[in-house]
């Protein structure tokens, strides 16, 4: 819980994911291209999960947070190469912006930290830590302290990014089962 | 002569006409009724359409929201993926409420609001922010009460590049594992460990400037110039210096003497997920031209933490030295607590997340530590040089129960090898956000 003393106008858009307060490492376009360098286009699809899909996620222990998601579909010609989802979670007191690349088999292809703002815990952007997620899918725990190692001094950042990745993996899988990303 | 009889064909025709006339009359009545009903339905449909339009208009005026599903968490959906928004100013807090019961002296049992901390972080712009923490210890601070009010942190941070940042103001020294991560949800046990309390002062902060560099290979380096300790306020009549030599002479930037400054550096490596290896060094003169001799305080540490799977293993070794203490102690001979030449301590700790469900997690732990706050004294001559203190060894066994990632309930038992009267049971409640 945190008390907002002065809410800022911080609307996330696809073009400017990091908004105002950030040390920006990548834009979402750069991250998408980094994850799928062979892609020719990235079609943005607005996905709305229905009630039964949300209930299924909840039954899996995934807090969907919203029914509305924006997914970029990486394509080369007519072939789908994968999906990219941009998201933000709160680390300890500030937002972490990140993007998750999902392969066509539903597993995590790559994670990129786009912006990090905390004074401590910036190690979540270390390649070695992010590589732990590669290959994990809906059948994986994707939990700190189980299949994802923690970073000392950055527990909350690790936990929240990990929870976010688990959520995105589940949301993309649900959206694909529902035909929304066909 | 006979009356004319209608022919059967005519009769049939007449009956047919009569039936048709009758049927036509009945059909006309039904159509009227139907038309009336259609008009009624049309009117009702128009009313429904109007109501629907009104509802749609009202919904369009509201922000998008997730469908009403009982099991689905309520969440704002102001953005395409419902990401949380970022306020410019954030209020932070942590607190510890502890109960200590000595097993051999239950009359000394105490309950205490050990710490209550409020802080804020405010973003001035994309690269600049101020971080503060204000702490109240022991609940009440007044002339007649034991509490203290302290500014624990107050610094401005500016990010120059994604790799390099600078901090200026009052900040925590990056020593050991606990000092910069001292919230109750971050450590095992009700009380902070002794090594990072008696040897490395607890929530040790200095005023100054520091540079922070974070590299992609997992290396983080910190270094800076700060205020130093104040040996001139060593109280040889008190036992405080025996409990924590540096804790008794830190200045906490309260009208801090600043003729002598200190330098510090810290290196931490997190190149392998789950592993942290690091060390720190702090050194600075601490007499500020107010004593007959110049004396230097130096403190260093090595630390490691490894968190494979459900395990959380850590260790810290720290050693401090104070130079030229013979000259300082010469005027203090006869008092119970002279200034030590060296002091040190180490611990090893193992914790295991034995059970978890949703946010709940139970993590038993055990910690072995030994420390000596007066490992050695400068030679003052026969009969005058104090004997080194005995090394205290403490084993702590207990568990942290995480209610949420921000709330922890703790219980442990501490057994002291030297001063057995300190053996105690501890209970604690902590939070941090």
Write up what this structure looks like:
The complex is a heterodimer of chains A (182) and B (433). Chain A has helices spanning 28-35, 51-59, 127-130, 155-177; strands at residues 23-24, 41-48, 68-76, 79-90, 95-103, 108-116. By secondary structure, chain A is α+β, with helices and mostly antiparallel strands. Chain A has one domain (23-177). Chain A has a 6-stranded antiparallel β-sheet with strand order 1-6-5-4-3-2, with helices on both faces. The radius of gyration of chain A is 16 Å and the shape is globular. Chain B is 16% helix and 43% strand. Chain B has a 16-stranded antiparallel beta barrel. Chain B has 433 residues and is an alpha+beta fold. Chain B contains 4 helices and 17 strands. Chain B has one domain (89-432): Porin (Beta Barrel), CATH 2.40.160.10. The model of chain B is unreliable at 1-6, 11-28 and 60-81 (pLDDT under 50).
